[in-house]
Write a structure and sequence with these properties.
Layout (H helix, E strand, L loop, with lengths): L1 E10 L2 E7 L3 E6 L6 H13 L18 E9 L8 E2 L5 E10 L5 E4 L5 E2 L9 E4 L5 H4 L2 H15 L3 H28 L4 H44 L5 E6 L12 H18 L10 E6 L2 E2 H4 L2 H23 L4 E5 L7 H11 L4 E6 L19 E5 H30 L1
Parallel strand pairs: 3-14, 3-15, 9-13, 13-14
Antiparallel strand pairs: 1-2, 1-4, 4-6, 5-6, 6-7, 7-8, 10-11, 11-12
Helix pairs in contact: 3-5, 4-5, 4-6, 5-8
Length: 416
């Protein structure tokens, strides 16, 4: 599976742009700030519904616009209604995502009926390796929860819908906690708020248990490949482990954890009201990455952390490939400057064995020589010059502006 063409409208720094990709290695070259990462980020949005660089939709939309559109022609996707064929006869499917500053993000397949963006997640799977990956080990729990959500989008049907439902319920419950605190402080009645809080707490527990169980399955699927891949990268004597640390840890010990979690909420009730936040729940989950039974963030060297991050992303790739039956697109977003020679070689050997690789670099000289070695053909590596794309896009915008100005002038003359 690979993306053959990507078209963006009003996406970040790109008003309009069309990029052609090929199977194998695609090298996207451009100075910092020119928009090269925006191109691969758009593929990531189609893949998992979110970006590793943004926590909301708004930053993805060009300034002054209300909607951004991503379209991609994908060869070999798992779609039952492919629209055409590529030059070599393989089926081509067109995916479209519309990102809105307000309202739900939407999607279409082959210009069909309107869907939610989450409905197409997993049909164009990708795994991105980024400079921020080391935070998976050394960073705060939010980085690891983001990784869990990305994996869930690809591996668990209905995961994003469950996550969105849980988030909505959590916000409502937190609002009631704040309102309860305010009423108590002002000496106002609290009975109605308490009744609402009880209802929303029940929904919070139900949605949280469902999300926790999904995440438990995800970590269980990743833990074995993660340990095996790390040993391949670092040596057979190295022992690592990936463990799920759920806030609703009652799920790990009870077949029916609802009552135990409800009792937990009763114990922390005063603290929740005082602070106006949900003190337990999947929004506080974490992953524990351990090296020789010790938390890696406290013990591992910088090199060991990078190797663990690479192993975790490679494990995700392996599990997605086995579950979906297709190889995800591999995105290497400006990672070479962060890695030493041995880890560059490891990630390149992995990436070049896949159907499609999208690599972003500031300069072609930043790419290790082995990345440029293909199968002996002249076009083994497809190079995309972002400066040339930008120049063409600017020229197109200028021509549109001139045409609109000429049309307006003609209409004014007619009115005179």
């Amino acid at each position: 599976m690979y993306v053959s063409r990507l078209a963006l409208d009003h996406y970040r720094s790109w008003s309009q742009v069309v990029v052609d990709f090929v199977p194998g290695v695609n090298l996207i070259v451009g100075k910092n700030g020119m928009g090269k990462t925006n191109l691969v980020e758009a593929v990531e949005i189609l893949s998992i519904g979110s970006s590793h660089r943004a926590s909301s939709t708004l930053p993805l939309i060009e300034r002054g616009q209300s909607t951004a559109t991503i379209r991609a022609n994908v060869v070999g996707a798992n779609a039952s209604d492919a629209s055409g064929a590529s030059d070599d006869g393989e089926q081509v499917t067109t995916y479209e995502a519309s990102l809105h500053a307000r309202g739900a993000n939407r999607a279409r397949i082959n210009s069909g009926s309107s869907l939610y963006l989450r409905d197409i997640i997993g049909q164009v799977p990708s795994v991105a390796f980024t400079p921020e990956d080391q935070r998976l080990i050394s960073g705060d729990p939010a980085s690891r929860r983001s990784m869990l959500n990305q994996a869930g989008a690809l591996l668990e049907p209905g995961y994003l819908a469950s996550l969105q439902q849980f988030t909505r319920i959590g916000k409502q419950r937190a609002t009631l906690l704040k309102q309860l605190n305010a009423n108590q402080s002002a000496g106002q009645p609290v009975d109605a708020v308490l009744s609402g809080l009880e209802i929303w707490t029940g929904q919070f527990i139900e949605a949280g248990i469902a999300l926790t169980r999904m995440r438990q399955r995800i970590v269980s699927a990743l833990s074995g490949p993660f340990a095996a891949i790390y040993r391949d990268l670092a040596g057979e004597s190295e022992e690592v482990a990936l463990k799920y640390m759920p806030s609703f840890d009652e799920v790990m010990f009870y077949d029916e954890p609802h009552q135990a979690i409800s009792e937990h909420f009763q114990r922390i009730y005063p603290g929740e009201v005082a602070r106006g936040v949900n003190l337990i729940g999947p929004q506080r989950d974490d992953l524990s990455l351990e090296l020789f039974d010790v938390p890696a963030r406290e013990f591992a060297s910088n090199g060991e952390m990078w190797t663990m991050a690479l192993a975790l992303k490679m494990a995700l790739f392996q599990v997605v490939r086995e579950k979906l039956g297709i190889r995800p697109i591999v995105i290497l977003d400006d990672v070479f400057a962060q890695l030493d020679d041995s880890r560059r070689t490891q990630i390149l050997e992995f990436a070049k064995a896949q159907d499609q690789v999208l690599i972003t670099v500031a300069s072609q000289g930043d790419v290790p020589a082995e990345a440029m070695e293909g199968d002996g053909t002249a076009d083994a590596v497809h190079i995309i010059d972002v400066a040339a794309l930008k120049e063409a896009a600017d020229a197109y915008q200028e021509s549109i502006a001139q045409s609109l100005a000429a049309l307006q002038a003609a209409r004014q003359q007619e009115q005179e």
